[in-house]
Amino acid sequence: MFGDIARFLLNTVFTLFGAALLLRAWMQVVRMPPYNPVSNAVMQATNWIVLPLRKILPGGKIDWASILAALIAAAVYEVLMVLVAGIDPTIMLPGLAVSAVLDVVKWALNLIIWMTILMALLSWLNPQSPAMPLLYQITAPFLDPLRRILPRLGGIDISPILLFVIVQVLLMVVTRVEYSLKFIGI
């Protein structure tokens, strides 16, 4: 029972932190203003690891320091999960590295799902919410191409539903790849 609780807590904490790191990188790509309260909260939560990494990886259009920080967080997460299971992590290092990369991919895909769900819900419940411009700007790179393809059905935008389905399928593929690699011992 302790192992289940520990795995749940580790998964929750590292998924939220990894998502914050990826959101930071994502906000830089879409040029999110730093004075936004959400941007400010994400920056404050992640500065302690990103700013030192910026000395090694200078910023540009892509925030490589945040992405590297997410990879480091995923590697620490994988090592801690193996330790909770009572296994020596040194015998699983190549597999842990691959699992860490796949964790970052899963965090990014989950972040897309949650941002899309939040945007869709707010657009129905409170379209005048101060968070709407932020959510629209973050989800636009994914939803705009789908909006060009899909017709509007009586004024209803179904592109978030299609994006949700596409990302869910990608999550299934990534999860299957991760289990397959763990099954063969990588």
Roughly what is the average pLDDT, rounded to an integer? 91
Number of domains: 1
Distance between the amino and carboxyl termini = 27 Å
Q: Profile the largest sheet.
A: none
**Using only CA atoms, what is the Rg?**
18 Å
Structural class: mainly alpha
Q: State the helix count.
A: 6
**H and E order:** HHHHHH
Kindly estimate the percentage of residues that lie in beta strands according to DSSP: under 5%
User: Could you say which overall geometry the principal axes of the C-alpha atoms support?
Assistant: globular
Question: What share of residues is helical?
Answer: over 70%
Stretches where pLDDT is under 50 for at least 5 consecutive residues are none
- The count of DSSP E runs of length 2 or more, i.e. the number of strands, is 0
Family: Belongs to the YggT family.
Protein name: Membrane protein
Pfam families: CCB3_YggT
Transmembrane segments: 6-26, 64-87, 107-125, 153-174
Please outline what is shown here:
77% of the residues lie in helices and 0% in strands. It has helices at residues 2-29, 37-54, 64-84, 93-125, 131-149, 159-183.
Task: Please provide a written account of the structure.
- The chain is built from six helices and no strands.
- It is globular.
- By secondary structure, the protein is mainly α.
- 77% of the residues lie in helices and 0% in strands.
How are the SSEs placed, and which strands pair?
Blueprint: H1 2-29, H2 37-54, H3 64-84, H4 93-125, H5 131-149, H6 159-183
Task: List the defining traits of the structure above.
mainly alpha, 6 helices, 77% helix, 186 residues, single chain
